[in-house]
Amino acid sequence: MWLIDKLVIGVSYALAVFDRQGLDRLVNGIADLFASGGSVLRTTQTGRVQNYGLALFGGMAVIALVLVIVPLVRQ
Amino acid sequence: MILEPNVGQIVLQLVLWLPAIGAAVVALAGNGRAEASTVDHDHPAAEGASLRAWRIATFFAAITFILAAWLLIGFDRSNANQYQFETRIGWLPFGSDYRIAVDGLSMPLLALNALLTLSAVAGSWRIAMRQPLYFSLFLILESAVSGVFTAGDLFLFFLFWELELIPMFLVIGIWGGARREYAAFKFILYTVAGSAFMLVGIFLVAYYGPRPLTFGIAELARFNFAQYGTGIASLGGIAFILLFIGFAVKVPVFPFHTWLPDAHVEAPTAGSVMLAGVLLKMGGYGLLRLCVTLLPQAAHDWQWLLIILAVVNSIYGAFVALAQTDLKKMIANSSISHMGYVLLGVAALTQIGFQGALLVMVAHGLYSGLLFSMVGLVYDRTHTREVGAMSGLAARMPFIASVFMIAGLASLGLPGLAGFVAEFTTFIGSYGVFPLATILCVSTIAITAGYILWRLGSVFFGPLLDEWGTLGDAIWRERVSVGLLAAATLLIGVVPSVVADMSAGGVAPIAARLVGLGS
């Protein structure tokens, strides 16, 4: 009986810790991931037209490259 | 005895909207002067407390409860499988009408909502801050939840579902405990995230449903979504899981439950009562009314998931509850465990299982509401909820100790109280389908008995500590508000037919839709 008591209570404490420290942290961690992702993206908002222009041309270059490469691979 | 349809229709509309009218009256009537009578030597309320808002709100909640009880008595029980007292008014151009009605599935929950709101409002006389706002939020909450239980249109259902969030968010965020803002935001973010999935599910069902486009639950329930294919990856299977996520957050189902301990613990007593007693039932009601009714084939395809989650929920919740030393945290986690029985009953996909699930929702609504009220009464006196800090309180507060024990015994399923009838029906309904899962869930009752008897025993019995030697028992206002719930717990335990017969009729059409799907 004593052993069963200790076992059940031990499992329950372990699960309670998992609930708060594991599962809850995990979900909150996902939220933090988005928050920190946002702060990384925020650094790209510089207000400098040159940077935006660079991204614009960079993107166009990637698209152009894909349009060239994909037909080549298809053949 | 049976209400005339046109009279019942008016009574139902009053049950739905009278609280909202009361909310406006409470808000307009304002605070009034502080009354000396609120401060007696045993129970000093905060200075400047006024009872005007409390009185008006209790009046409206009481009238609403009387009307709801009239409806419960006047409900035609032999036709509980049909919508009664229906009001239908053309509303939105895309097939969504204002449709309000009750059947055997919604009637018990509607009455439960009215009873718990009355108890929660009447028990809140101690609130000493912004009383008019506080009481009008509770009355708006009552209207919104009644709307969820009576809406006969998916769009209207969703509207009431979202409306319910606002008052509860504010109640937790303004009158809550130390971590109230964290808990309030967690509550609303989880539920809104869940209802985003639910909304997609609703649109999917309506879009692929019958033509002309309709959001009417009765019309959608007659449509065969299995014609688009079967299996969990079919249209029905996807719509089912989208709706399920929305309800699973509310029930709550593991692993979407972590908002619950925070919200229930931080909310003021009346907020916890409404959360545990009524708001969780919206999830269980949605599972029965929408998931299983509209998509029986998908329910059958997803049955394995439901049963796994039911077992995990009841065992996990019970173990976590056993580890808590804070009474409110213990009861919050025991709610997770008991809502696992609701899921078990639904997962069985049998008429008796559904009936059991509905009865567990009603019974759990009563005794969990009562448990939270009793913790509130103890906390008002001792200003602690730690079990280690309290001992022998029954000597100073015999009434509180007795009613707390009644609620605890109902929670562990003692025959003669509401929990027993409900849980027994559920286990009967599910044993034939899942013997092993049922046995696992039944075994958690032993753990429930463990934490309830262990914790309540150490709080109320044993030597009385000197520091608690001057505490007083409940006063009449408190006795009436918790007495209502205790009486209802006893009534359903002794005369289950108050709600049992109509609940059987209410779930019969859902079970009929599952016949012939094979196993």
Provide key terms for this protein.
heterodimer; A: 75 residues; mainly alpha; 2 domains; 89% helix; 0% strand; B: 519 residues; two-stranded antiparallel sheet; 20 helices; 2 strands; 3% strand
Main sheet properties of chain A: none
Considering DSSP H and I runs of 4 or more, what fraction of the residues of chain B is helical?
A: 55-70%
H/E topology pattern of chain B: HHEEHHHHHHHHHHHHHHHHHH
Q: What gyration radius of chain B follows from the Cα positions, in whole Å?
A: 22 Å
Helix content of chain A: over 70%
| Number of structural units classed as domains of chain A | 2
- The strand line-up of the biggest sheet of chain B is 1-2
> What is the global morphology of chain B?
globular
Largest interface: A-B, 11 and 12 residues
Would you spell out the secondary-structure blueprint of this structure?
The complex is a heterodimer of chains A (75) and B (519).
Chain A: H1 2-42, H2 49-74
Chain B: H1 5-29, H2 52-74, E1 84-92, E2 96-102, H3 107-122, H4 131-150, H5 154-163, H6 165-175, H7 180-207, H8 217-222, H9 235-250, H10 259-266, H11 269-294, H12 296-301, H13 303-322, H14 327-348, H15 351-382, H16 398-411, H17 418-431, H18 435-460, H19 476-494, H20 497-514
Antiparallel strand pairs in B: 1-2
Helix pairs in contact in B: 1-2, 1-4, 2-3, 2-4, 3-4, 3-11, 3-15, 3-19, 4-5, 4-6, 4-11, 5-7, 6-7, 7-9, 7-10, 9-11, 10-11, 10-14, 11-14, 11-15, 11-20, 13-14, 13-18, 14-15, 14-17, 14-18, 15-16, 15-17, 15-19, 15-20, 16-18, 16-19, 17-19
Detailed description of the structure:
- The complex is a heterodimer of chains A (about 80) and B (about 525).
- The N and C termini of chain A lie far apart (about 75 Å).
- Chain A is built from two helices and no strands.
- The longest helix of chain A has about 40 residues.
- Chain A is mostly helical and about 80 residues long.
- Chain A has two domains: about 45 residues; about 30 residues.
- Chain B has about 525 residues and is mainly α.
- Chain B has a domain of about 220 residues.
- Helices cover about 70% and strands about 5% of the residues of chain B.
- Chain B is built from 20 helices and two strands.
- Chain B has a two-stranded antiparallel ribbon.
- Chain B is globular, with a radius of gyration of 22 Å.
- The interface between A and B is small, with 11 and 12 residues.
